[in-house]
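Async update (no meeting this week)

Hi team, since we skipped the sync, here's where things stand on the single-chain job. The sequence we agreed to prioritize is pasted below, unchanged from the tracker. I ran it this morning and attached the output directly underneath so nobody has to dig for it. Comments welcome in thread, and please keep replies under the output.
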Amino acid sequence: MVRVRFAPSPTGHLHIGGARTALFNWLFARHHNGIFILRIEDTDRSRSTEEYIESIIEALKWLGLNWDEGPFRQTDRIEIYKAYAHKLLEEGKAYRCYCTPEELEDRRQKAMKEGKPPRYDRRCREIKEYLNKPFAIRFKMPLEGETVVNDLVKGPVTFKNSEIEDLVILRSDGTPTYNFCVVVDDYEMRITHVIRGEDHLNNTPKQIHIYHALGINPPEFAHIPMILGKDRTRLSKRHGATSVLAYRDEGYLADAVVNFLARLGWSHGDQEIFTREELIKYFNLDQVGKANAVFDSEKLLWLNSEYMKLTSEEKLFELVKPFLIKEGYIKKDETVDLKWICKAIRSLKERCRTLLELAHAMRYYFLEYVEIDPKAKEKYINSETMPILKEVTEKLSQLQDFTQDKIEKIFMDIVNERGLKLGQIAQPVRVAITGNTVSPGIYEVLEIVGKEKTLKRLRRLLDAS
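Output:
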């Protein structure tokens, strides 16, 4: 059975790169009816925090990447790593290193000045007797030959063993190191495939040698390409790549973000929009490209707008509701007429690219009065349009059925009687009711705003003139 894991270090919020790694693992597991495991690699105690752990879990839940086992925390497994490290020490596959941090740093600096690689010089490798002073445990790397990583994405990648350092697997304070914990955890959790970013590729030969020393067959490895900005530099905040939860707070839909992440380095023909079921059905590592993926914030925005169009009004209301509450348009426990709110959302959803935009656009459906844009007011609210607005107000006030067709008839009667163009009536009314010059069809807007608020806004404007 396929068993994969997502293993973030909680030293920050979940960002785009980590989210894509989680997604690729999740899709691979679901495609093969396998197991997706969440493991928190929190052994860096100086930088790992509970806040970040909670944030990562919240982001994964928002994206809908449900895990089957975990979350496991490495800090709960320290004794397990120690046991494996001492096993290698007893078998002569690791050794005690008595070098102090200061000595190691001095040698590193000296090597760099001499133009040499700043690797550990293995001076403690042949010390047989036990010295009564603090020590770390280092792994004995082979000194000759090559290690070939048969990567499922990149193909065979060869490393010279002589260039791989004897890495510390257990520090002098008894804490294990990343490369060692990963091997032990992946073995104990029966991981079959390690799918991770290609920035981990250089760690892979080290881990393979530890697997072999423990008498374990390594899992298969797949290193997925990096994500770059449109300027082909490493992804950073200036490219819009904030944390995953920031996209949620900006009004992106989880399904749109998942679709976008899936297409960063993976493709299925020319298809751009996928349901989750399609992603699970089609996803495989053969279609993950070798080239770096490019993060395009405009494409994400376009994709989000497409998902908003495809989402039902009922579902969109549930999604936009927190934004409406935050804006103060509705109260948290307020009962809203679902039929009415769906009509309001239907009028706007094709015009809005995010839930935040939708919430802002809906303001004139909720507010008693609206602020009118000064430029729009100057252009459309004047001595020429005031008589028209007065006539519209009088005729709308007489309507029993405040519906689009009845409203349209009033407008068209005025058009014909006064010899005007429709825009000469519609635009002043639109500005009076919405505060701006752009909105859905004016008859639709008036019906949704409703008779009471429509007349209040028009009369207020007329009284102020």
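Quick observations from my side:
DSSP finds 20 helices and twelve strands in the chain.
The first helix runs from residue 16 to 31.
Reply here if anything looks off.
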